[in-house]
Amino acid sequence: MRPATLSIILLLFTFCSLAQSQQTAEEFFKRGNVALDSGNNDSAIADYTEAIRLRPEGWGAFNNRGKAHFKKGDYQAAIADQTEALRIRPDYAGAFYERGLVYLKLKRYADALNDCRAAVKFQPAFADALLVCGISLHEKKELPAALVDFDKAVAFAPRNANAFGGRGDVLLDMGNYSAAAESYTRCIELDPKLRRAQYQRGWSNYNLGKYALAIVDYSTAIRLDPTDETMFYYRALSYKELKRRPEAIADLRKALRLDPTFVDAKTELAALTRVKKRR
User: Fold this and answer.
1) Helix (H, G, I), strand (E, B) or coil at 50
2) Close Cβ partners of 27 (under 8 Å, ≥ 6 residues apart)
3) Which of 130, 126, 125, 88 is nearest to 112 (CA)?
4) What does pLDDT average to over the chain?
């Protein structure tokens, strides 16, 4: 066999082997995705690790392995994987977002904000990244800036319940109770099981003097979780404003059965029972 022919054969063999490795890496990557979606994080990590071994520059495998680590609560491993994904592909908006989620979980709000700002830079309509920006700014007490990001998030994703809920939280803290209640209402329409939106709208209605509506909201929150003593307490405050003392007293007693150390509930109950005795 002539040297030139041998070189061609070796070159073809190299290309075939590379294609086979890439195909196998893709198969592991896809299998990892199935495991990740089904909640089998350990299997997902194993498959992504094999995909990375076969294709070390596979930024998608690094990012998704980071997701699996995040779901397991291994936050430093998640950050390391997403950082590697960004080293390979510096314009990868998804990796900036995923790492931002980890920073948000760790309450590293400045880092979460920086990463999700970068995600939005590369993908301006990235509503979930804007949502993390809004949450981070809210936690940093930068309310007007947070509202801007939540407004953008709901504009890009008008069916994202969490975006409307986060927007409502900012408006509530700004004292704009009417707009907060409207935002929570939209959130509840999109996802009626978001209990937080129910009781936050209840607090908005309470501050607006709409005590009957507040009672409806707190009652829904209680139905969704009857073990939360604070919902009974706040519903009692609404009953109190409507001069419905028996219902208020009953709710305060329920709150104290759930948490006998609930000081505010004890104080309110003592005040209401004193009034009752005087009568």
Assistant:
1) helix
2) none
3) 130
4) 92
